[in-house]
Amino acid sequence: MENSFHENRSVGLLLTFIGGMMDSYTYIRYEAFASAQTGNIVLAIIQAYEQQWNMVGKKLLSTLFFFFGILLTKFMIDYFKKKQLHFWRLFLLYFEALVFFLISLPFLQPHPAIITIMIAFTAAIQWIAFDKINGLAYTNLFTTGNLKGVATNLYDYLTTKDAGAKTRFFHFLFVVVAFVLGVIVSVFFYRWIAAKTVLLIAGLFLYLALSETFFVWRFQREIHLFR
């Protein structure tokens, strides 16, 4: 377990649930996607044609900072691997909780472009840093690739009865369901408490960070006890 707490199924599914919440919340409130940069680029082109330049700028900045987030996370993965620091991803969970708490504060509300940049940057870090569940790749921010995994592995299992294909089918199915539930919950709460929905996202990140910190602490403690 020493460097794979982030591959736990509970972690991956909760991050995917949060990913669905992030994408739907950002689109409902700011008319931009947190992570679906294909959608942002398509919308930016359409809005450029309609000369809605403020909307175009917001989406392009979101895509740019998503790109920067990917580069930064790749650097962190290499850096901490060389330093043999295994639990650095815990700090990312606290960072995400902090970002979404800051987004809820009144002083940022008049600046939607800054908020969408913050969310896109944070989402990119999450996507790259948490990319496997029990060694199986998945995406916790959008679900097209996961849907492909559901369909292809279902076909492979039905035609070959391969046990591995069955395992992968349920792996991707659970991820898709988690994402869809996150979207549904986000839409429901936004209709109920509007912008305060972002505090629910922050709370889920904080819960995940604290629970995994305890999990890692307990694991390390058991190692020292049995030495």
Explained architecture:
- Helices cover 78% and strands 2% of the residues.
- It is built from eight helices and two strands.
- Strands 1-2 form a two-stranded antiparallel ribbon.
- A hairpin with a 2-residue loop joins strand 1 and strand 2 (136-137).
- The relative contact order is 0.18.
Class from helix and strand fractions: mainly alpha
The major β-sheet equals: 2 strands, antiparallel
Mean of the pLDDT scores?
Answer: 92
Number of strands: 2
Instruction: Trace the largest sheet across and list its strands.
Output: 1-2
Overall outline: globular
Distance between the termini: 16 Å
Q: What count of helical segments does DSSP give?
A: 8
SSE order, as H and E? HHHHHEEHHH
Strand content: under 5%
Low-pLDDT regions: none
Helix content: over 70%
Query: What is the radius of gyration?
Result: 19 Å
Transmembrane segments: 60-80, 87-107, 113-130, 169-192, 198-217
Protein name: YoaK family protein
Keywords: Membrane, Transmembrane, Transmembrane helix
Pfam family, one: DUF1275
